[in-house]
Write a structure and sequence with these properties.
The complex is a heterodimer of chains A (293) and B (93).
Chain A: E1 8-14, H1 19-34, E2 42-46, H2 54-57, E3 65-67, H3 72-78, E4 83-88, E5 92-93, E6 96-97, H4 105-113, E7 120-125, E8 151-156, E9 165-169, H5 176-179, E10 184-188, H6 189-199, H7 212-241, H8 253-269, H9 272-275, E11 281-283, H10 285-290
Parallel strand pairs in A: 1-2, 1-4, 2-3, 4-7, 7-8
Antiparallel strand pairs in A: 5-6, 8-11, 9-10
Helix pairs in contact in A: 1-6, 6-7
Chain B: E1 4-7, H1 17-25, E2 29-34, E3 43-48, E4 51-55, E5 61-64, E6 71-78
Parallel strand pairs in B: 1-6
Antiparallel strand pairs in B: 2-3, 2-6, 3-4, 4-5
Chain lengths: 293, 93
């Protein structure tokens, strides 16, 4: 079952319009266009900071519609989708996907289950605590052995812990010059490796097919291999950062102090990168084996 | 894609080192903007999902989540702020 033909819709979802998430989505779009997926088959669901124009500044390709995450159900239902892939970046929390409103696991499952005419769906979860979506009832057969349509596969970048974004440089990748994308950004590692597999799939398990299961294994291994490598570098860098910043005379000292304190907290939080291990997971591996890139 | 411009840290003498480091890490994003009502504002520093700072030309923060409309011109890359990690060689191909 092919996921890059005209019967498949790819939806990218982020509850935040911060730079790294917009770049994750842009990279994903470039990978899909590289594989000749029609632009009309790509939908974006991005929550934008009120009154801002961050998304507009990123100049997403013309012809790709951008909606809020609250419109997910309505827009997917209206599109008569046969096969669906949802790629989630942005933040996660204890309840599921951070968005306006938050998207809880059973809500997303319900939205997909109700899609008229849908045969299969793949959900790739890159946000923190993606494991909140694990153990859903995603079986493809009911108690009588009848296949439940649509079959659904969930894949998580991490279990009940953080997923990390780190600076990456893909400029040496063989397909880099064909992606027309700024190849250095603060990438969600798992999603980056997954989309690389979409752009240039490799048959890792030797079954002569480019399956989602291949992409899952590559993404998980790639993420943890890079995490191990960056931990040492990150540790050294953070050690160096533990110095007091010199403060100048500010015309708005209260605002400056807010920024200084925020930065200090965020640098402290960056130590999460050193402490985090990502354990990817997949729910309904049998379907992943059938889904091809 | 958003246009980018490379500047060095000396352009932002009023931004604390921690902030520069976080920009280098990709956690914060610096944009050059124009704000018609407040021409002294030259940059927006995005620090979180719901948070941004207006900055003067030298990087001095002047307001948090300012209400003035702004047009984003470019994303600023700091060319002399080391990022704390890079994935140098991806050999999946």
């Amino acid at each position: 079952m092919k996921l890059l033909d005209s019967d498949t819709v790819w939806a990218f979802l982020s509850g935040s319009d911060e730079e790294r998430f917009l770049s994750d989505i842009l990279f994903g779009i470039k990978c899909l266009l590289y594989r000749n997926l029609p632009k009309e088959n790509i939908l974006l669901f991005i929550d934008q900071l009120d009154g801002s124009n961050f998304v507009a500044a990123y100049d997403f390709p013309k012809g790709i519609a951008i909606y809020s995450t609250a419109e997910l159900e309505a827009k997917l239902t209206a599109n008569s989708i046969k096969k669906l892939v949802i790629v989630v970046t942005g933040h996660g929390n204890l309840k599921g996907i951070s968005a306006s409103p938050d998207i809880q696991p059973y809500h997303l499952l319900s939205v997909i289950r109700k899609l008229p005419g849908a045969e299969a769906a793949l959900v790739v979860l890159g946000q923190c605590f993606a494991g909140t979506f694990n153990f859903l009832e995603a079986r493809s057969k009911d108690a009588d052995g009848k296949v439940i349509i649509p079959e659904i596969c969930f894949m998580g970048a991490t279990d009940l812990t953080y997923s990390v974004s780190v600076p990456v440089d893909l400029s040496k990748a063989p397909i880099a010059d064909q992606l027309e994308f700024p190849l250095q950004w603060n990438a969600n590692l798992f999603l980056m490796f997954f989309m690389l597999q979409v752009a240039a799939p490799i048959d890792f398990d030797g079954d002569d097919r480019f399956s989602v299961l291949d992409a899952y294994k590559a993404s998980g291994i790639g993420t943890n291999a890079e995490l191990l490598r960056i931990k040492r570098v990150a540790f050294m860098s953070l050690q160096q950062s533990i110095v007091d910043s010199t403060i100048s005379q500010f015309s708005q000292p209260a605002v400056a102090q807010q920024l200084i304190e925020r930065a200090r907290q965020d640098l402290d939080s960056a130590s999460n990168t050193i402490l985090t291990n990502q354990n990817p997971w997949i729910l309904h591996a049998n379907l992943a084996r059938k889904l091809e890139l | 894609m958003i246009p980018t411009v490379a500047l060095n840290r000396q352009c932002f003498s009023q931004l604390p080192d921690d902030v520069l480091r976080l920009i280098g890490m990709g956690q914060y994003t610096l944009y050059r903007v124009s704000v018609s009502e407040q021409p002294e504002i030259q940059y927006v520093l995005r620090t979180g999902q719901q948070e941004f700072f207006f900055l003067k030309e030298d990087g001095e923060p002047v307001s948090l989540n300012g209400s003035a409309d702004f047009d984003i011109q470019e994303k600023v890359n700091l060319e002399d702020v080391p990022i704390f990690s890079v994935v140098p060689n991806l050999n999946w191909f």
